[in-house]
Amino acid sequence: MSDIHSHVFVYGTLKPGHRNAAWASAVAQPQAQPASIGSAELHHLGRYPGLVFAETGEQVQGYLYTYPPAQLDAVLAKMDELEGYRGPQHPENLYTRELREVTLVDGTACMAWVYVYAQPLPPESLIEDGRWRDDLPVPQGESA
Prior knowledge:
Layout: E1 7-10, H1 21-24, E2 31-44, E3 49-53, E4 58-66, H2 72-83, E5 95-104, E6 109-117
């Protein structure tokens, strides 16, 4: 994994087999590998999850998508649209995009882009096992 800029870590609706997976391959077909990211929490936000980094966080499970480096800018532009990312420090960002260390199943670590939730979290939204599933019940007080 030599090019740090050719990887994106996905943990929710962009994962293979989930409802927004087509967004991840709209520009280029990625190579997908199971992976995790540490010191993080996954939160149920209704129809999608949000990842945040926390000192008390655990492992969030997802996939590392690897793209052809020449197509990554177009891939990120497409994902930015879905994730509500408008640019660094933009006050209306739903998510920010950060370069973080991700660990593959075999223990190999690499750097990847990850979308980090940038808004206040609803109470009782933590997904304890760090795994998003489309059929998770909606937390009380949230709407689907």
